[in-house]
Specification:
mainly alpha; 13 helices; elongated
Length: 327
């Protein structure tokens, strides 16, 4: 029992001795206050020097050169930067032009042409044989001559609608040609198309009255009615052709394409030739003259009144209507 007590006392004494020795061997580093004060003073002096010192000049900066060896990629990039204007800081800024899409405001052309197509479709649905008969009269004027005055009297309503189609199509075609001319560039499309539409209405209205007057003067009502039927059937076909050509020139920039002029010129020449031929067949028995003499007389009666009437419309009506629209 006594031996056990001595052993336990020896073990406890050994443990306490090791703990005290470990505490004595622990190394502690104490921070010097003077070192902290010196670092604070140096930082404040460094900041004060930076704030008080003026910026370095280009010559001073050029003294600090760091040599650096560049590779092949670096040489290529350096030569590219030196050659590109937008990388040079000393150059004046480049005025890069940005193109925006300009709104042309031509949606009305689509609805305008669709209105004419709808008008033509209504005539074809309500009067299915009239358009084919007009086209037959264009390519074979003898069919109109044999039909006589009944052709126009029996087809008064579809002829009226196709006459309106001819006036609208002709007005749009003339507008497409004249919209960029100096005298018409300041007007809107509504003003120009209205002027051309009413001009065509007045021209053919006066021509109709003039032919009726000649039929009363020469007492040849049947012959002049046949000729009026030829004139209006030709205009109806020409109106359909102008509607087709209008789709080719509606959204074209830079004027009307040359092939449209070729098609229109050939069509107008064919119309006038058939008109002269039809008039000669109608009036040949009463006139008793050759085709050449009759052609000269026909052109003088057909073209001269039209040109005089157009001159009057342009000088008296169009100018006043243009001033009215502009005001």
């Amino acid at each position: 029992m006594m031996n056990r007590r001595y052993i336990m006392l020896f073990i406890l004494s050994s443990c306490l001795f090791n703990t005290v020795e470990a505490q004595d061997s622990l190394k502690l580093s104490y921070e010097v206050v003077s070192d902290n004060i010196d670092s604070l003073i140096s930082d404040s002096l460094y900041k004060e020097f930076i704030q008080a010192h003026p910026p370095l000049t280009a010559s001073q900066l050029s003294k600090f050169k760091r040599t650096q060896v560049s590779g092949a990629y670096g040489n290529y990039v350096t030569s590219f930067i030196d050659s590109a204007d937008f990388y040079k800081v000393n150059n004046s800024p480049l005025n890069l032009s940005v193109s925006f899409r300009k709104h042309r405001n031509v949606e009305w052309m689509f609805y305008y042409l669709m209105f004419l197509v709808l008008l033509l479709a209504l005539v074809q649905v309500i009067f299915p044989s009239h358009i084919s008969r007009s086209l037959r009269g264009f390519f074979a004027p003898n069919s109109v001559l044999t039909a006589g005055r009944d052709f126009h009297q029996d087809s008064a309503l579809p002829s009226f609608f196709l006459g309106v189609l001819f006036s609208f199509s002709g007005a749009f075609f003339i507008y497409s040609y004249s919209k960029n001319l100096p005298g018409f560039a300041s007007y809107s499309w509504v003003q120009l198309i209205s002027l051309f539409f009413f001009s065509l209405i007045i021209i053919y209205g006066v021509k109709f009255v003039f032919l009726k007057f000649l039929s009363w003067v020469f007492n040849q009502q049947n012959a002049f009615d046949r000729y009026i039927g030829i004139v209006f059937s030709m205009n109806e076909t020409l109106g359909i052709l102008l509607l087709a050509l209008s789709f080719l020139i509606a959204y074209v920039d830079g004027g009307i394409p040359p092939y449209v002029y070729v098609i229109l010129t050939i069509s107008v020449v064919v119309v006038f030739f058939f008109r002269v031929l039809g008039a000669f067949k109608v009036f040949s028995k009463q006139a008793r003259m050759g085709f050449f003499e009759f052609s000269i007389s026909f052109l003088s009666i057909e073209l001269l009144p039209t040109l005089v009437l157009w001159k009057f419309i342009h000088d008296q009506l169009l100018v006043k209507l243009a001033l009215l629209f502009r005001g």
